[in-house]
Amino acid sequence: MRVLVTGLSGTVGCALRRALEVRGDTVIAYRRGAVAVDDRDDVRRQIDAARPDVLFHLATASRPTGLDNEGWRVNVEWSTRLAEA
Q: What pTM was computed for the model?
């Protein structure tokens, strides 16, 4: 199974990666820095490129990157865009 994961470098993401790889799944990291998290088209393009069977959304705005209104954009708008896609 192809699995796309946001937050793959976090504590839960690392544990999930290990468990999925043991099962033989292909784990793909969602590259947050390469995509505007609140841009519907950018989010859709990344998901389409990865062609996942399933998506785990584990990421949060835990480390500031300087994005305006970052907490809202990452925790709310990004989650919404992923669900829509």
A: 0.84
